[in-house]
Amino acid sequence: RAGKLYKKGNYAAASAEYRRALLKDSLYAKANFGLANSAYQEGHYDQAKSYLERLAGTTQLPQRHQADVLHNLGNVAMKQKDYHAAIEAYEESLIRNPQNEATRYNLVLAQRLLKQQEQQKDNKQQQNKQDQQQQQDKQKDKQDPKKQDQQQNAQQKQDDKQQGGKPAEP
Length: 170
Description:
This protein is mainly alpha-helical.
């Protein structure tokens, strides 16, 4: 029943059915996997991660199912923008099922997004350093009245040049 509800897109009802199945057998891997997928579809990524991590820790699953669990863990990490964790999960999944092209694609995407994220972080740090330097320069200028007078005089000369070199009339 839970599988049918999931396929119809009724993830909340599917979750309830998967929970009911887990009441009978808490180690039922298919129900745990379905519950994790339902939580993922509902946007409950922390819950999905919890269920998937529990499944990933079991050695009773065949290699192919372990690969699927790790693939989905990677998907959860991608939604949470934790690209390091996503890359690790996809790599582990590919060890267990090297033929999975969807996992390979997601791995490359996660690597690309991680690189972009790091570049943005570096750019932001660089911008913050520039902003701090400008603030320090402004503070120094405020503290040095001679420098402030020199800047005002330079500005006045610049204004005079723009006015055609004529002195301002009284």
